[in-house]
Amino acid sequence: MNPTQILTAALREVAGAALVLDADLRIVAFTDEAADELGHPPELGVPAPKILCGHGEERPVAEALAAGRAVSAEILRPDEDGQNYPILVRATPLRGDEGQIVGHLLLLHADHEGRPDGRATESFGIVTRDARMKQLLRDVRKVAASQSSVLVRGESGTGKELIARAIHDGSSRADGPFRAINCAALPATLLESELFGHSKGSFTGATRDAPGHFRLADGGTLFLDEVAELPPEVQAKLLRVLQERAVLPIGGTAPISVDVRIVSATHRALRKEVEAGRFRADLLYRLRVIPLYLPALRERPQDIELLARHFLEQHPSAKHVDHIAPGALEALVAYDWPGNVRELQNAIEYATVMGSGRVLTAADLPPEIRGEQPGTRSVTVPDSTSEDTASDLSPEGRRLVNALERNGGHMGRAAASLGISRTTLWRRLKRLGIDREDI
Ligand SMILES: Nc1ncnc2c1ncn2[C@@H]1O[C@H](COP(=O)(O)OP(=O)(O)O)[C@@H](O)[C@H]1O
Ligand SMILES: [Mg+2]
Q1: Could you tell me the pLDDT band of residue 204, with boundaries at 50, 70 and 90?
Q2: Does the beta carbon of 183 lie inside 6 Å of ligand 1?
Q3: Per residue in 8-41, pLDDT tens?
Q4: Is position 116 within any domain?
Q5: What 3-state DSSP class applies to 198?
Q6: How far apart are CA 30 and CA 27, in angstroms?
Q7: Is the CB of 341 under 6 A from ligand 1?
């Protein structure tokens, strides 16, 4: 820990949700609780009034800060639904030896009572109540109106292809074709002819002309899935096509111009692939004019129940189910979802096929989600003393412990990942008799 981190921990101990500003009102430190109250960690170096005083009625705080006066006033912050909730801000100027103002201390107190759970929204078939996902959907609408290349990053099953389709459907190209190709699935030569086409006789097996995905997507959108896996020679060709807006099919004589919007996706950090020499930097910049990020399902636990119900409603074999038992929901929320939304979709299908009766119970779920697999505990719980605690944890307890483990024991981050405040997490752990030292 560096001294600032220690001082921030001390500040948290005495002040809870607090921001420290320098004399220019820029944020120099904040506590986890402040990030909780604001809904996200504020950026260091950003002028605080920009974050806190967006609207006319919140000028008292801005004015008092600018004038170096102490003030206590309410500001309004938009929540996930764009509705405002009040935060009480108490600002105190901090003075140096000569009495000059060296900074400001801001204490925050949010009124969370009556703040609804993020309301569910659906657009383009994408269902969510997570604040980051809602922002993403707003971004998607803006992006769709442009012609820019988009790179969607996210773990497998988070909905990258769904986003690509949403961008297409929301764009002026919606009436044109949408073509998807998985760059990881084919060897280089095949991929090349799939993408750029070939003329009859250009290689053994080329028994007729093939247009290739670029020409088939003309006037529409081409989705390049798993784009990080493109072999180097295909990367070079793709770059040329993007630069020249024309494709030269294998064995072809003249380039054919194409009008295609590119949306690509990867589960990898492409920048790292560039650093490792596996991906061309110039191609990265072409593809990633607009980057979009899809959070993993485990990072938006509020969406688990919502999506489970959504898939239940959709699935034809689920007609008999009209209720999800609390125990089943707990198991769903406690699970880590390495396969994200796709895995949840499959788990619901499994439950509707294997289960019977009107209530979907924990017993209907796939075994790995029921949490009955021997050995999983000893893998996730690092030391032997905690094994006793972990083995008889309730699903809720297990979920809290999992979140803490994933976040290296960091309360603030674990709470944020669960969509609850740090104090709530602390209270629940206490209620369940879980000692943090055991984790
Ligand atoms: N937010 C969501 N709402 C509804 N369905 C979703 C959502 N996210 C993903 N899905 C569904 O989950 C499955 C996996 O999504 P997909 O876009 O193929 O993921 P990826 O391309 O990231 O692997 C698809 O059937 C998709 O329709
Ligand atoms: Mg996919």
Answers
A1: confident
A2: no
A3: 888 876 677 899 999 999 999 998 878 877 878 8
A4: no
A5: strand
A6: 8
A7: yes
For residue 262, count CB atoms less than 10 angstroms from its CB and return exposed for 0-12, middle for 13-18, buried for 19 or more: buried
Q: Which of 50, 79, 110 finishes a domain? A: 110
Residue 418 tokens read as 């669960």
Q: Is residue 280 part of a domain?
A: yes
Q: Is 134 in the pocket of ligand 1 (CB under 6 A)?
A: no
What integer pLDDT is reported at residue 112 of this predicted model? 46
Distance 184 CA to ligand 1 centre (A): 19
Is residue 115 domain-resident? no
Find the distance separating the first CA and the last CA of the chain, reported in whole Å: 20
Would the CB of 158 count as within 6 Å of ligand 1? yes
Residue type (1 letter), 313? E
Whose structure tokens read 């979709």? 345
User: Has residue 428 been placed in a domain?
Assistant: yes
- Separation of CA 345 and ligand 1 centre (Å): 9
Judge whether residue 348 has pLDDT over 70: yes
Both tokens of 61, joined, read: 């705080």
Please report the atom of ligand 1 found closest to the CA of residue 122: 3
Q: Is there a single domain that holds both residue 136 and residue 277?
A: yes
pLDDT beyond 60 at 366: yes
CA 232–ligand 2 middle distance (angstroms): 22
Domain carrying residue 301? 297-370
Residue 383 has pLDDT above 70, yes or no: no
CA-to-CA dists, residue 212 to 145, 178, 248, 361, angstroms: 26, 13, 10, 48
User: 156 C-alpha to center of ligand 1: Å?
Assistant: 9
